[in-house]
């Protein structure tokens, strides 16, 4: 008598049940393996992001810190990004890479874009300064980095390069002095925030304060990292209201840039016109902007295809010189968006006979919801340009409620 079949039968029913149980166990095991594999993939993806992340609150915006070993820190704990996050409960990502030059980050900006920061703190360049690279080339790379940030709507906070007294200082320090002088002027012309950390590290006679650099005479000691945190935090523009938008360098060419008046009560700010193509319905209103004037709000629906349009515009005849640099910028707040809708802010360069030449966009056909961010771009005036058309547009055949504010078009000083 089989101990698996006390009744003494052939055991086929029990065998069948055993086989079914085994098959079920196999299926369960395979499912568990698949789930574990999926969990591993998700964990690896999360690790890529978490590798740069320092836990903190998202309420004030996401911050990326970009730089070399001064940003990366001497340990995982002793870094100014870590202290900034922990002392002020901020969400901060550390994109410091030891021993690197500015060109390193130019090739790896996708890492920064992947975390979708609102603000980027840039403290970069000391390694460049100690090489034979010319100051002009260093500045060119730095400007490329800032352009790559602003093109994605990321607000830069620029930090002066720190002093050093190591073996490389003989080559580096003259460039650092010159670079920092340039950085102040560059920030002034472009309306960027600059943090003067260099001065915080120096005595009035130019010598480096005792205890601010460690024994290698290049990287900050604990006291130096705290000085960086104390200097940077008050300058971080947590709200759009903190971000500069008017600054020296020529007047704003746009009439009624803050949409402050609507003399005829039609919902559109004075000096702005509107065009709506077939199938699109749009309503217009002015609502309070948190800083200056009003938002120009458009609530639109309908359309026949992805290129259906409703847009505000101004045509301006200006004294344009081919090769001069102009900036277009504006605050964008997209409350709702669906279907194929896309928001765009830009200008068209046109001839004296109103023929289109080319365009410059601050925000290029973006299909996403945007919460009160400032976008900007700079470009050269093309040959034969005599007029500018400023365009605030919504494309598509869906529904969208969008607000435009503090629109700026201005010539930038040469630097």
Written account of the structure:
- With 415 residues, this protein is an alpha+beta fold.
- It folds into two domains: 50-238, SGNH hydrolase (Rossmann fold, 3-Layer(aba) Sandwich); 273-411, Galactose-binding domain-like (Jelly Rolls).
- The chain has ten helices and 16 strands.
- Strands 1-3-2-4-5-6 form a six-stranded mixed sheet.
- Helix 3 (80-88) crosses helix 10 (222-232).
- It is globular, with a radius of gyration of 29 Å.
What's this model, at a glance?
By secondary structure, this protein is an alpha+beta fold. The chain is 29% helix and 31% strand. The protein has two domains: 50-238, 3-Layer(aba) Sandwich (Rossmann fold); 273-411, Jelly Rolls, CATH 2.60.120.
């Amino acid at each position: 008598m089989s101990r698996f079949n006390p009744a003494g039968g052939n055991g086929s029913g029990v065998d069948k049940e055993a086989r079914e149980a085994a098959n079920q166990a196999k299926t369960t095991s395979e499912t568990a393996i698949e789930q574990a594999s999926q969990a591993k993939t998700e964990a690896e993806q999360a690790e890529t992001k978490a590798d740069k992340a320092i836990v903190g609150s998202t309420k004030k915006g996401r911050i990326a810190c970009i730089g070399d070993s001064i940003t990366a820190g001497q340990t995982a704990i002793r870094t100014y990004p870590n202290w900034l996050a922990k002392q002020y409960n901020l969400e901060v990502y550390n994109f410091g890479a030891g021993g690197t030059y500015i060109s390193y980050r130019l090739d790896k900006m996708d890492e920064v874009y992947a975390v979708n920061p609102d603000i980027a703190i840039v403290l970069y360049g000391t390694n460049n300064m100690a090489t034979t690279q010319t100051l002009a080339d260093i500045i060119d790379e730095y400007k490329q980095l800032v352009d790559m940030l602003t093109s994605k709507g990321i607000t830069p906070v620029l930090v002066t390069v720190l002093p050093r007294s190591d073996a490389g200082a003989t080559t580096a320090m003259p460039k650092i002095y010159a670079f920092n002088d340039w950085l102040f002027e560059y920030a002034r012309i472009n309306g960027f925030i600059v943090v003067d950390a260099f001065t915080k590290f120096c005595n009035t006679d130019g010598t480096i304060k005792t205890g601010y650099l460690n024994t290698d005479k290049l990287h900050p000691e604990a006291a130096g990292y705290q000085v960086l945190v104390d200097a940077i935090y008050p300058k971080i523009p947590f709200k759009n209201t903190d971000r500069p938008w008017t600054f020296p360098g020529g007047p704003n060419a746009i009439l009624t840039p803050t949409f402050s008046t609507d003399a005829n009560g039609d919902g559109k700010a004075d000096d702005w016109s509107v065009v709506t193509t077939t199938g699109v319905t749009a309503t217009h209103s002015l609502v309070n902007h948190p800083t200056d004037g009003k938002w120009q709000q458009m609530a639109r629906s309908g359309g026949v295809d992805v290129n259906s349009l409703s847009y505000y515009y101004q045509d301006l005849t200006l004294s344009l010189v081919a090769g001069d640099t102009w900036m277009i910028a504006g605050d964008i707040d997209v409350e709702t968006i669906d279907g194929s809708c896309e928001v765009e802010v830009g200008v068209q360069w046109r001839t004296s006979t109103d023929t289109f030449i080319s365009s410059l966009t601050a925000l290029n056909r973006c299909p996403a919801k945007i919460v009160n961010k400032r976008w900007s771009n700079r470009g050269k005036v093309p040959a034969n340009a005599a007029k500018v058309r400023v365009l605030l547009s919504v494309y598509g055949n869906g529904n969208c409620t969008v607000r435009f504010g503090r629109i700026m078009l201005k010539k930038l000083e040469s630097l």
